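Hi V.,

You were right to ask for the full record rather than a summary. Here it is.
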Amino acid sequence: MSTQKPSSGTLIEFPCMFPIKVMGEVHDEFTSTVIKIIKQKNKDFDPSTIEMKGSSEGRYISLTCFVYVTSKPELDDIYRSLSTHPMIKVVL
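Predicted structure:
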């Protein structure tokens, strides 16, 4: 397995396990929606790696999803798909 060296514009070495933080309002389908979006782009994503945290007021939820990505275009595609979904407020 070869490792891609960081190219201009990124300090990330691929492949790697990358944490993606996804935030939105609490909703019954929020977590399953995030999982579905990531799995559409990365079929090997393991939902058991998700760390979940609620806001102190209980209105918002934050999911940290650890995704094994092999390239910057793959990571960018996941970010784009997550950030364009109306249920998702922030992707970091």
